[in-house]
Amino acid sequence: MTRSLMMMNHNYYVYIMASQRNGTLYIGVTKDLERRVAQHKEGTFEGFTKQYDVNRLVYFEFFSDINAAITREKQLKKWNRQWKINLIEKKNPEWVDLSTNNYQFPYFETNPVMPANAGIHKPSENGPSY
Q1: Which of 56, 61, 51 is nearest to 111 (CA)?
Q2: Which of 15, 72, 78, 90 is buried most, with the most CB atoms less than 10 Å from its CB?
Q3: In sequence order, which ranges of 9-129 are alpha helices (DSSP H)?
Q4: Sign, Cα dihedral of 51, 57, 59, 65
Q5: Is residue 43 in some structural domain?
Q6: What are the tens digits of pLDDT across the range 50-69?
Q7: Domain assignment of residue 15, given as a range
């Protein structure tokens, strides 16, 4: 299998974790969201999310292209806090932990937050368009 075909077979996720509703936020990118969220919840790695108990998956977007996912992650990290909260609350107004049910992610299959290859949202003067 060629490298380009292998790349096409991957899914990538940009995700937002929170310590609680309106709490500390963390934005990351991964190709294995279930594994990565479990690592956050279990405190596998020392660092920001373990220090601030950031272990609730409150938002994610799906991408089939890693470059698009990385671009989106960097973009979201530059957004101000209120824009991030607005983004979360548009799709998850109750800040439900989307990884509940023993990390089985039942919510993912039936209610994806963003479709594959979701467009990159650029903030305007009045904030981003969600």
Answers
A1: 61
A2: 15
A3: 33-42, 48-51, 66-78, 81-91, 106-110
A4: positive
A5: yes
A6: 899 999 999 999 999 999 99
A7: 3-110
